[in-house]
Design goal:
- Helices cover 39% and strands 16% of the residues.
- The longest helix has 18 residues, at 373-390.
- The chain is an alpha/beta fold and 398 residues long.
- Strands 3-2-1-4-5-6-7 form a 7-stranded parallel β-sheet, with helices on both faces. The protein has a 6-stranded parallel β-sheet with strand order 10-9-8-11-12-13, sandwiched between helices.
- Strand 11, helix 11 (321-328) and strand 12 (332-336) form a beta-alpha-beta unit.
Amino acid sequence: MSSKRSSSLSKFPGDQGSDQVIRLAQVVRPASGGIRRHVTSILSRIDRSEFAPTLFAPCGYQADPSIQGVPIVTVAITARTSPLSDLRVIVGMSRQLRGRFDLVHAHGIRGALIGLPAAYLAGIPALFTAHNMLPHTGWASRSVLRALCRGANVVAVSQAVASSLAASGIDRRRISIVPNGVDMAAFVGPVLCGPERRAALADLIHSAEWTTSPDLASWLRDEDNAKLPVMSVGAIGRLAHEKGFDTLIQAFEYWLSNRGGSSTFRRLLILAGTGPDEALLRRLARNIPDVSLLGEVADAVPLFRSVDIAVAPSRQEGHGIAALEAMAAGRAVIASRVGGLVESIRDGESGILVPPGDPAALSAAMESLAESPATRTRFGTLARARVEEYYSLERMIE
């Protein structure tokens, strides 16, 4: 890991720092996907002349190389609530914070349930960023969170998340909306043409951690197949039920079997990510040679620059960083009509919104975009412009 990991108080920034620098403790639960990219963005772009950040994270947290130089302190934050263990972590963290930090910024509900009381015990202010809709289950945790948020500022990544927090009893006046941001510079580059796009797709599949379709890269590189165009659909995210990737695979299989539209191109589905539904999705894709599950990929940029259509099939979504990344890459996006995705994507203008968990509707949307290059180009152009205006990383950090 490139970032220096420390549990020694003498290594915290601000011990020898200027009084003008705000000593900032970022607290994160076990996280992958959007939350991890969000925290990485803050730590890599925050103004070091104003803030001296330290990351409090669970053991095994995968820190991005871009946050090199940020101290990382191991704390025993687990994915599930454990009152006695959590209390020990809170008391221990409060000792580490007291007199050495000026502000705590907690991420996610678990991060808030640990970071906010630790800040209160240490006598320093705190804020909490909610990345997802507040779940309906977990009455005790929601009650504790409501009490903690009476003395903390709350940031929601979308209006949908803000509404779910308010509906759970958190004072709406304490909630600010700061949408996720995407680094637009990462998506700058020439538009990939047919052969270049095929080569990029082949490289993605070939370099994958694992794939359900190992022969697909060879097929894409074979010059004998070059005359048959490819229509590729891409998605990335945590392989979990709420992300709806099972619906995507079912919709893709339905699309393959429904040859009512054009059959002049080979249809491919490229899905990247890991998570608890990995085995299930592998089984669903096992007999579909045109589906390639790539496992974990370090960077979403090559994927979204290579595919023709991007899909965010979530059953629930706080905002959807992957959808924003696809839009920044100039891709036409199909997304579920849920949560923050409704705020990011203008239906029929910069993408298509479909009901969640509806393979037939998703299949029809893929067919519609596949049959209309002009629509894909128009949606992609307007999607990128929308991200530039409302969802840039610079805007979020500011």
